[in-house]
Amino acid sequence: MARVIAITNQKGGVGKTTTSINLAACLVEAGQRVLLVDMDSQANSTSGLGIDKNAVETSIYHVLIGEANLQEIIRPIAVDFDLAPSNPHLIGAEVELIQTLAREQRLKNALQPLREAYDFIIIDCPPSLGLLTINSLTASDKVLIPIQSEYYALEGLQQLLNTIELLKRSGLNSTLDIEGVLITMYDQRLNLSKQVMEEVESFFKDKIYKTVIPRNVRLSESPSFGQTIIEYAPDSSGAQSYQQLAKEVLSREG
Amino acid sequence: MARVIAITNQKGGVGKTTTSINLAACLVEAGQRVLLVDMDSQANSTSGLGIDKNAVETSIYHVLIGEANLQEIIRPIAVDFDLAPSNPHLIGAEVELIQTLAREQRLKNALQPLREAYDFIIIDCPPSLGLLTINSLTASDKVLIPIQSEYYALEGLQQLLNTIELLKRSGLNSTLDIEGVLITMYDQRLNLSKQVMEEVESFFKDKIYKTVIPRNVRLSESPSFGQTIIEYAPDSSGAQSYQQLAKEVLSREG
Ligand SMILES: Nc1ncnc2c1ncn2[C@@H]1O[C@H](COP(=O)(O)OP(=O)(O)OP(=O)(O)O)[C@@H](O)[C@H]1O
Ligand SMILES: Nc1ncnc2c1ncn2[C@@H]1O[C@H](COP(=O)(O)OP(=O)(O)OP(=O)(O)O)[C@@H](O)[C@H]1O
Ligand SMILES: [Mg+2]
Ligand SMILES: [Mg+2]
Fold first, then answer.
1. Which of A29, A224, B38, B243 has the most CB atoms in a 10 Å sphere around its CB?
2. Across the strands, what pairs with B178?
3. Residue A11 dihedral angles phi and psi, to the nearest 5°
């Protein structure tokens, strides 16, 4: 039975996609079967793995509006590593879903038949708290929150926690829990990074991962080659930190 | 008659808020009267100027749903520098606006009576192409597009240009034009920065500003003090580049 983890934070550019792709790749390297679901209309997880989003005919959009099932859109990336791609159609999904039945549970229902086929299902979320993120949170067991080592990154956390709390109380997903909080783009030369780290530690206490992702240019270069960090630069600090994170996620099993 | 400029790019974390606050401040320094409108539910422009978003009772949300007029919510930041603040209520606005009359023109109508009172109205947009961004584009004369010097930043440009084109053809704003494209967080030591710059130059040709905003830690520190870059670190490369940008925007008058 797959563990479903949503990678989410409505603040933009904090490393959601970078974490989704590279955590998935490192879990596969550690022997897990992983499905990555791209729930962002920017389709960065899709293009970051070398797939042309404009050439994707049926995507997660068609699954959400009921025109395809998930099995039909899944593409193999590597052995034991599959992707449910996005494409620009997803821009219209939030408005279209508003009038549909069980609009918050479309992704959860679509994932149900596939949970036996994977060990992990990772969901890359868009930078908003709209229906696509609500669908992702409703479908997930746990939430992994990437936090950039910057001032604005702290600002939005309370809103995110409120949304998770509302979702739990609404009955849409009463067992949803925070898997962990991940510090990204950490630069040990900057005071700002240290200050943000201290604030996050006092706010989240034991929920924060011991693994910290450093700022590492290899991480921002790898998507332009359509490769994960362990393919593109296996000896980089970026690759090592995501391998470390995969170990920590596995050790927090269940 | 104020020039209304929307600062937009649906890619997250590219420098929309940093550009909105600091371009506004540098235009004020150059003798202009400026209104900054925060159209993002994260309210980063509001908090970046030192205002507690949770203490803001009536915000741009109340203006969009018709419960307040813009004049009532405006706060002075400095002489000739006003802010129309946001607060977390704005999260619900996209869904609530869907059923309202003239839902795309709410901001445009609200700004109309104030256009004589300012020389510039700057609108900070959220990282999405939903109704809040559509409202901002409909209300604007021009669009300023910040582009981070990263691979994913190039990916989303076509979608943004398509949205602007659709908006023009729909009649919502047939004269909307791109004011300029701004390269942000440029690091001259990185090949990736140079590559992205070349791609953007060949894509946008003369629309790209000569001013390039360098990666400068002072820019990410200043919001934690509630200050603009020219108050916090007037001699920094960040301050100088935004002062340079203000000059370029003024020289492109009308
Ligand atoms: N640890 C890191 N070191 C250096 N660059 C990074 C790191 N993590 C991410 N990046 C780069 O920073 C940018 C933002 O990261 P990413 O796109 O993964 O964030 P996101 O949260 O998914 O953004 P969005 O909100 O638009 O979905 C990207 O260009 C990415 O390549
Ligand atoms: N030139 C720069 N040098 C260094 N840091 C910067 C620069 N510009 C912006 N930043 C920092 O990068 C982060 C992202 O910038 P900002 O929040 O302005 O982007 P945004 O596009 O408004 O994000 P969102 O999509 O969430 O609205 C912030 O923490 C900001 O302080
Ligand atoms: Mg992303
Ligand atoms: Mg912003």
1. B38
2. B143
3. -70, 135
The tokens describing B23, both together, are 């371009």
A208's tokens: 């924060």
Does the structure show a pLDDT above 60 at B254? no
Helix (H) or strand (E) holding A180: strand A177-184
Tell me which H or E stretch contains B184. strand B177-184
Asked whether the predicted pLDDT for residue B104 surpasses 80, the reply is yes
What is the A152 CA–ligand 2 centroid distance (Å)? 8
Would an 8 Å CB–CB cutoff place B47 in contact with chain A?
yes
Pick the residue whose CA is nearest to atom 15 on ligand 2. Answer: B15
Q: How far is CA A163 from CA A92, A159, A182, B196, in A?
A: 22, 6, 19, 36
Q: Which atom of ligand 2 is nearest to the CA of B241?
A: 1
Q: Please say if the pLDDT value at position A253 is more than 80.
A: no
Those residues whose C-beta lies under 8 Å from the C-beta of residue B38, and which sit 6 or more positions away, are B20, B44, B45, B46, B60, B83, B84, B85, B86, B124
Q: Which residue type occupies B6?
A: A
